[in-house]
């Protein structure tokens, strides 16, 4: 994933954070703004020219944390698959590929923010709850 994918990532944000988009005080754009800074990495799912999913991570600071912020050394992941391609394993493939990338990059763990009641998918991939607030569960996985 590189800077040319930012437009697609912005589109994927709507799918990933649809449950948070109604709150204008939560700046979702920070997950792709100035893409390509140190700590940014991601993967995309595609068939031919049809791109239908993405998973990416980036580092945040304590002063400007992400929704699933744990600490400044733990990247936070975002994942989304367009509705027409859900339920066929694309999300799991994206997640596993991104976790492998994070291991290769030397991160000891990775975090995310999930809706309460929507954590089973992540738990099946080694994530566990590390906090809950504002209607969201912060989860982390040791790599």
Q: Overview of this structure, please?
A:
The chain has a domain at 3-102: Gcn5-related N-acetyltransferase (GNAT) (Aminopeptidase, 3-Layer(aba) Sandwich), CATH 3.40.630. Helix content is 21%, strand content 29%. The chain contains three helices and six strands, in the order αβββαβαββ. It has helices spanning 6-16, 90-104, 120-123; strands spanning 41-47, 50-58, 76-81, 109-114, 128-133, 136-142. The strands form two sheets. It has a three-stranded antiparallel beta sheet, sandwiched between helices. A three-stranded antiparallel beta sheet has the order 4-6-5, covered by helices on one side. The two termini are 21 Å apart. The mean pLDDT is 87.
> Rg from C-alpha positions?
14 Å
Largest β-sheet summary: 3 strands, antiparallel
Annotated CATH topology of the domain at 3-102: Aminopeptidase
The best one-word shape is: globular
- Structural class label: alpha+beta
The CATH class of the domain at 3-102 is identified as: Alpha Beta
Question: Unreliable stretches, pLDDT < 50, 5 or more residues?
Answer: none
Please report the distance between the alpha carbons of the first and last residues. 21 Å
